């Protein structure tokens, strides 16, 4: 079976690296790895970390390009690759523009699509934007749905997806996280010095488009927290998006015990998570990763496509409200019982064997179909 994997962003690289490596190591599987390079530098770091090199690098990152231009260039770049390779299955991940276009380009050629991390839903099309629509559209095209959790499976069934096409695998990000967390990592001197001071660290990340107008509320909350607690510091890897960087710098430049750092390589980021007291983020993947390391996560969004974490108690939605963020952080900083209640919950997003489960499904389908392609849901 020839399996083409299409990725283009740093999160996709992290989450699909275990799958690509498993494909390469499995007899009878021919792996074709395509990197659209929707992200460039940060994704290259991840691929280097996992020792992966794409057969096709479309190099589509371009400063200032909008989603419309990116979408057109993705179609133009992927079409000849699909025509040349003629894969039996195309794997895409999650909900990026690369994910949607990769799935649709394969669908137009009647190549079965496997959707990894299928079934995430907020059911609010503009939250997150454009990810929620992307994942729903891919869900309509996919022949194989690799859902991380039972709740994701139920979301798909509620949309009339054939249950036989759904496999609950856990999330591949846990595979990647556990592999990297076991490696010895030496962080840049700046970070080593920060963690040597003995203060409790709040790790912060922000990047969501739908939060852009409200991000300064988050940053003002951070000012108040470090002013209130002398033993607390913030480590904030600032996203490369120029608008986000301007917003961060306007509020937080020069603030005592708020450390604004450049984006971290994945291994460094895992190291920082391990040494943090809690995490405040609007990221999706971190909502799955931090609980695996026993870290409470405050989600700076009003919705999440990962309600399992909220129900289990590892995540708490705090939105972008300054008051809600300060209150939630204060509770965790002051109440040891409340902290343990979040930190000690079993991670609902997997045990680290998701990639192997995905390969098992594909092998089973190849055996059952006798090499015939599946072109219907």
UniProtKB/TrEMBL annotation:
Its EC number is 5.1.3.14. It comes from Salibacterium lacus. The gene is wecB. Pfam families: Epimerase_2 (PF02350). GO terms for molecular function: UDP-N-acetylglucosamine 2-epimerase activity. Keywords: Isomerase. This is UDP-N-acetylglucosamine 2-epimerase (non-hydrolyzing). Residues 21-362 form the UDP-N-acetylglucosamine 2-epimerase domain. Belongs to the UDP-N-acetylglucosamine 2-epimerase family. Gene3D superfamilies: Glycogen Phosphorylase B. InterPro entries: UDP_GlcNAc_Epimerase_2_dom, WecB-like.
């Amino acid at each position: 079976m020839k399996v083409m994997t299409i990725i283009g962003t740093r999160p996709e690289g992290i989450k699909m690296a275990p799958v690509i490596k498993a494909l390469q190591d499995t007899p009878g599987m021919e792996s074709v790895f395509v990197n659209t390079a929707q992200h460039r530098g940060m994704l290259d770091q991840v691929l280097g970390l996992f020792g992966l090199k794409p057969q096709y690098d479309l190099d589509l990152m371009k400063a200032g390009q909008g989603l419309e231009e990116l979408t057109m260039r993705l179609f133009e770049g992927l079409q000849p690759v699909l025509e040349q390779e003629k894969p039996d299955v195309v794997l895409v991940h999650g909900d990026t523009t690369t994910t949607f276009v990769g799935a649709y380009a394969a669908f137009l050629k009647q190549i079965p699509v496997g959707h990894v991390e299928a079934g995430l839903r907020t059911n609010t099309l503009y939250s997150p934007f454009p990810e929620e629509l992307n994942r729903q559209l891919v869900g309509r095209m996919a022949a194989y749905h690799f859902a991380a959790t039972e709740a994701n499976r139920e979301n798909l069934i509620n949309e009339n997806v054939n249950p036989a096409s759904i496999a609950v695998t856990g999330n591949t990000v846990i595979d990647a996280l556990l592999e990297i967390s076991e490696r010895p990592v030496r962080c840049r001197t700046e970070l080593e010095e920060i963690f040597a001071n003995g203060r409790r660290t709040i790790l912060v990340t922000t990047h969501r488009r739908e939060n852009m107008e409200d991000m300064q509320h988050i940053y003002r909350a951070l000012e108040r927290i470090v002013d209130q607690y002398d033993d607390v510091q913030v480590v904030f890897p600032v996203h490369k998006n120029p608008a986000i960087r301007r917003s961060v710098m306007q509020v937080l430049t020069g603030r005592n015990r708020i450390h604004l750092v450049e984006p971290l390589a994945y291994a460094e980021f895992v190291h920082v998570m391990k040494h943090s007291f809690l995490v405040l983020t609007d990221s999706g993947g971190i909502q799955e990763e931090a609980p695996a390391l026993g870290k409470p996560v405050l989600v700076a969004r009003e919705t999440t496509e990962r309600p399992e974490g909220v129900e289990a108690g590892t995540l708490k939605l705090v939105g972008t409200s300054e008051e809600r963020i300060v209150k939630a952080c204060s509770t965790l900083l002051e109440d040891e019982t409340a902290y343990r209640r979040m930190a000690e919950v079993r991670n609902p997003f997997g045990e680290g064997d998701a990639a192997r489960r995905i390969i098992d499904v594909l092998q089973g389908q190849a055996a059952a179909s006798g090499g015939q392609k599946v072109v219907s849901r």
